[in-house]
Amino acid sequence: MTAGRNTQPLTDKQIAEVIAYAQVLAIPTDVIRFSNYMNTSYGNIFGKEIVYVGNDVAPLSSPPVSGITANSRISIKGSLAHEWIGHRGAEVVNRSFERGSLASPSLVNIALDEAQASIRAARFAPQLTSVERYTLLRDAIARLKLHHLKIREVAHLLFITHL
Length: 163
Fold this sequence. Notes:
Blueprint: H1 12-24, E1 32-34, E2 41-45, E3 48-53, H2 70-73, H3 76-91, H4 107-124, H5 130-145, H6 151-154
């Protein structure tokens, strides 16, 4: 996900939580790749789906009293839902935003894609608490705000009404 998230190797308990919620989301076990060196992400590489689960799948264990972002509070379940229900859900129906290239990223499209993923997760992911859903929605709003975008101005662009 981003800075302000866990950087320590996942504990056995955290790994078990990832595996248990991945089963709830019906993520095939052969798609999941744990890595201490990659950020949590969804990708489709040469027709093969992969969910990388990095240390940042978990929120900070001891967040600072102030200055913490919504993204820093997203739970393990929220992070997995963001990737699978959010990014994958949009990708399989060709509704992801073009992110540009490494040399020339489209920062607005990246913000739209990330906001869309968080909103989709908040709306459609099973077994999230109301706090987890609210945190995902706050994350979406914050990502848009960084680029001076308001949800009411871009909602019509986002794939957030269908599972």
